[in-house]
Amino acid sequence: MSSGGAAGRISSLVERLLGHPLPLAIRTWDGAQDGDAGGPTLVINSRRALRRLLWQPDEIGLARAWVAGEIDVDGDLEEALSRLDDAVRSINGRPRLTAAERADVMRVAVVLGAVGPPLKAPVEEAALGGEQHSKSRDRTAVSHHYDVGNAFFETVLGPSMVYSCAYWTGDGPDYTLEDAQRAKNDLICRKLGLEPGARLLDVGCGWGSLVLHAAREYGARVVGVTVSTEQAEYAKRRIADSGLAELAEVRSDDWRDVDDGPFDAVASVGMAEHLGAAQWPEYADRLYELLRPGGRLLNHQIVRNGRGRRATQVRGDRTFIDAYVFPDGELLPIGNVVHRLEAGGFEVRDVHALREHYARTLRSWVQNLDAGWSRAVDAASEGRARVWRLYMAGSALSFDAGRIGIHQVLAVRPHDDGRSDMPMVRPIEWST
């Protein structure tokens, strides 16, 4: 279906640039619609979206228009992203526009009234300064992602307040996200061999859910650290309300500042993605030093799979994730994670892939966000809610496709004589 107008002009231009039609219908601010893909429709609400793309013709230009509400999707967002995936990758991987292509773009922009000075980026876009992965910059990067209001995260994450991949050991309508997050926390505690009185360090403890679980269910003495002020305050209140202050504490500290080892176990859940490859040697060395001989480390993190290498991104441009979600974050292949732990002195004992579990977790969070959209917007901003809607839907597709994965790596600090204190046979509950 074509009704001309702005939609027809944009569709024609996109087809010339990509070499094929856009796999979505387009509807523009003038009410015109072009194409009928039998599915979702890309809605361009404002000429400002085109102006952004004139000045920033890449993923960031699209992201800014999305966050600002200048483009939207009418219909299923995941289906739209799936259809757009190849088109976006071809944009990221192609060279700069030729002079003739730039002239075509400019002619359409002039006709549509989209020419003008560059627009400011939405306030939700991260702008970091200082040396990358310095303590101050890391604190700012973490704050950008996490310090957006605990009410926002309560809406998205639900009562468990766990912001990492759940472990779905059940199914059906009676098995909830909270059940799956409880199962994940329990799996970690079992892998770490926690017993009453054992000292556990939770690096990047978030809102304290694992801290509370380990103290309440296993009688462990737990220290959690986070550089997010809002997370630390929230976790401290939860500990006090639970009557577990004698067993659990949360500090607003950087992992590099923890100096009261040794610990019997260390958990790092969803934290190592923030490190960056250059920090890994210091990270592995520090956690090794904090553990007693025979102590165990459980490192739970998202990784980049082989097919997830961004070989098509030839210019090293920022991505939506870099700019709006995890500034300074970096995903490593699982082989690199294992290698770096071994280089730090650890013996890796178990590697557990949970890729499909994270896709399901993300979709549960999306359902929570959709159901509580007004509350989420009130707690943060509409732009922030749009960031999370796009990030979670797109990430679910990336896990489905195997471009990214997530693994729990269980490692041990051996005794000087090589003893590991690990069981000879892997307990069945580690892999079920």
From TrEMBL:
Belongs to the CFA/CMAS family. GO terms for biological process: lipid biosynthetic process; methylation. Keywords: Lipid metabolism, Methyltransferase, S-adenosyl-L-methionine, Transferase. CDD domains: AdoMet_MTases. This is Cyclopropane-fatty-acyl-phospholipid synthase. Pfam families: CMAS. One of its GO terms (molecular function) is methyltransferase activity. InterPro entries: CFA/CMAS, CMAS, SAM-dependent_MTases_sf.
